[in-house]
Amino acid sequence: MQYEPSRSSPAFLLCEGRPAVTPDADRPQNFAETLPTEMSVRIFGELDAESLCSASRTCRLWHHIIEQSEQLWRRQCLLVRAVCRREVDGDRRDGLSWKVTLGRNYSRCCLKRDWLRGRFSQVRSADELSGRKMTSLDAETWGEILQAELDR
């Protein structure tokens, strides 16, 4: 079956076969305008944290859907928790939202993961880290990193 541009997309059809939205030929269609919010959230749920933040800057509707969905931020935060369990659990105990918790711990998680994987094992001076975003790490995290270095 070949694509026929003259036919309406199934997303724009009601049960009776009439278009739910008249497509404007001058602008691309926005799926979030035609789908239920829950479906848009499921689509946005396939994005990683950086892509989710970029998508939220696309238009007001996407921004609203993404910003209001604790489900999206929770999913991303649980991925960060795999590396920064103590930090994420502490923020959640303090009553911070999933979005705020993610914002506070995302950079820390990326840095800690790189240290634990040995990405910085061969660094001889601070100059080799120029351009790399660094963030503060607590004593327990440094202990984990040092132990990982000793185990290598």
UniProtKB/TrEMBL annotation:
UniProt keywords, alphabetically: Ubl conjugation pathway
SUPFAM superfamilies listed in its UniProt record: F-box domain (SSF81383)
Chain ranges of the F-box domain: 29-76
Pathway, per record: Protein modification; protein ubiquitination
UniProt keyword Ligase present: no
One Gene Ontology CC term in the entry: cytoplasm
Biological process according to GO: protein ubiquitination; SCF-dependent proteasomal ubiquitin-dependent protein catabolic process
UniProt protein name: F-box protein 48
PROSITE patterns: FBOX (PS50181)
Organism placement in taxonomy: Eukaryota, Metazoa, Chordata, Craniata, Vertebrata
